[in-house]
Amino acid sequence: MAQILKKAGTSPAEAIPPQPSYRRPWWSATAAAVLTLVLGGSVLGVQLESTGITTTVRLMGMETWGWLLAAALAVFLHQLIRPQVEDWRARTRKPSRFTLPKIFSGQKRQLWIMLAIGALLIFPFMSNRSAVDLATLTLIYIMLGLGLNVVVGLAGLLDLGYVGFYAVGAYTYALLNSYLGFSFWEALPLAGLMTALFGYLLGFPVLRLRGDYLAIVTLGFGEIIRILLNNWTELTGGPNGIARIPKPTFFDLEFTRKAQEGNVPFHEYFGIAYDPSYKIIYLYLLALILVLITLFVIYRLLRMPIGRAWEALREDDIACRSLGMNPTGIKLSAFTIGASFAGFAGAFFAARQGFISPESFTFIESAIILAIVVLGGMGSQLGVILAAIAMTLLPELAREFNEYRMLLFGLMMVLMMVWRPQGLVPLKRPHMELDRG
Amino acid sequence: MADALRNADNSDMSSTTQARLAGEAPLLNVRDLAMQFGGLKAVDGVALKVHPGEVVSVIGPNGAGKTTVFNCISGFYQPTGGEVYFEDKPMHRLPGFKIAQAGMVRTFQNVRLFKEMTVVENLLVAQHMHAERNLLRGLFKTPGYRRSEKALMQQAGDWLERVGLLEFANREAGNLAYGQQRRLEIARCMVARPKLLMLDEPAAGLNPNETRDLDDLIVSLTRDEGISVLLIEHDMSLVMGISDHIYVVNQGQPLADGTPDEIRHNDAVIKAYLGEE
């Protein structure tokens, strides 16, 4: 039996992957340089000028383009000699038999990720206001989905009150601003910390609970937060909410037509005409950066001891304990870290809307975020992104069916559970590669 | 391997170890252990000692309370009475993960792998207590963190090779054959670097070939790694072959203890296994 299995599997020698090919360094270097030019050029090399209602594109001066060309040349040379450098490093390094896969394994994938980020950066400049606005909303849901994915998808703790953390983040910024005059950038880390604290506090009573019971308690938590915000009128303004929450600033520059006292608006500082779409584009780019940071952090966490411990806890908490892992600490860390992402998303949401009330944080929001995680595939980051896009775009595209939206939503979930219960893009286990050596 | 097996067989006659004879401090010392579920006394007055480098077995008929003893020692139950000392430190009242951290790691009667994770990942998770767990260091991949992860990987690879599962490294653990899962579970315990390995019926469901491999593996663990093994097992040939000392439990109470030879000829034990007549 053992022998048969041994024959069936590939031997370790065969499993060694081929070294990255150096066959076409010229091609890849050229591609990278062109990409640098296109990306850099579109961001720095041209300027949008609006005269009246038309917007014209004006090329920047020779100096800017000179620098851009120099940058492209540097990228070109770097790409050209990189294989040799890596080869040299690989030879001088002590060999180890297993290595964790790198974040960009393979040049192809690297290129795709760069292209995707490039496209996302250019997108707002090529699109209309409402599309950019919708994209920003999608990015918020992606962030929420990624955060909840840590709790539900990875640690296996069914949390139905995730919107509570979102509300905590939003109200942290709103209250800090309206009472103490904190700016968005000062409040953003505090919102994350505050929500992490709430995640930690909620984590304590629910540590012993699992499955359905946990779901009920977290559901209650979400409702408690909402009702508290609704009724603590002196502090939160109750159902009237909090209005006039300022938008994020760009290094202290505001995106309003007229800045507050002692401040300069963005367009005056750069000597360009006022255009309300700057604000929308800026918010979009900000959300994009927040999402990219979230993606990176969770990607790293997944490959760190804590991420592995979360998954192990989901699989079998008794085995975890037998191996010296403290399930309490691991659960709390999942709750805390997952919640903090909702805090960042909440603070951004408050800044974007300019007005928040408990109405924005009802149970249906929790359900939508959970649906994003389930639809995308538990634990899978790419799945969550696709599902978040689907969940925000589809209702917009199907506006005429507004009354039947929830019906369609339910139907979609049922069909998914029947045909693809593992989600759109199920989590792929990281493949550990055997190193030559 | 075969030599090791024969040696273990030969040492039957004088298998009470030097440490035990010299009255040295035991690694694990369980005194008067009791576990009561409501009115049922599942374990009552069980005592056992494991000395460094020994293989000690607990045997008994079905339902004798062997696994309950295991669960009490490893902290999965809070014993209602008695004391458990590991390296002279009290272990009763401690939660299971603390006991594992102290150096007692166990397997389970029904294999408990992280089934949806790959074989390597199972071994990486098991080294959690030895890993660099600082979040910031991990996020920014400091040299110390890389070194730590590399060491975990190396250790995982070494043990996979040792239990013959290297080629299945990226397979999901749940997809392995049953015998392989058993071996992986032992490897998973070993990468956690225990001083005492507690195996709960490791041979259950294995065919004779696989049982022989397991036998070799356990012998090599005590010989090469210098760890002690506490074993619950039904397979008498396995128990008699590798144990230095055997404790017999019947209906929750200690029945006898001694070398394999003494146990084999103990009337009370034979009665308990074969019935009164």
UniProtKB/TrEMBL annotation, chain A:
Answer yes or no on keyword Repeat.
no
Q: Where in the cell is it found?
A: Cell inner membrane
User: Could you name the Gene Ontology cellular component terms for this entry?
Assistant: plasma membrane
Keywords, ordered alphabetically: Cell membrane, Membrane, Transmembrane, Transmembrane helix
The record's InterPro entries line, in alphabetical order, gives: ABC_transp_permease (IPR001851), LivHM_N (IPR021807), LivM-like (IPR043428)
Membrane topology classification:
Multi-pass membrane protein
GO molecular-function terms, A-Z: branched-chain amino acid transmembrane transporter activity
Q: Which CDD domains does the record associate with it?
A: TM_PBP1_LivM_like (cd06581)
Which residue spans traverse the membrane? 26-44, 64-81, 111-127, 139-158, 165-182, 188-206, 281-302, 332-355, 367-394, 406-422
Q: Where is the High-affinity branched-chain amino acid transport system permease LivHM N-terminal domain?
A: 28-122
Supply the name of the protein: High-affinity branched-chain amino acid ABC transporter permease LivM
Q: Organism source for this protein?
A: Cobetia crustatorum
What does UniProt list as this organism's lineage? Bacteria, Pseudomonadati, Pseudomonadota, Gammaproteobacteria, Oceanospirillales
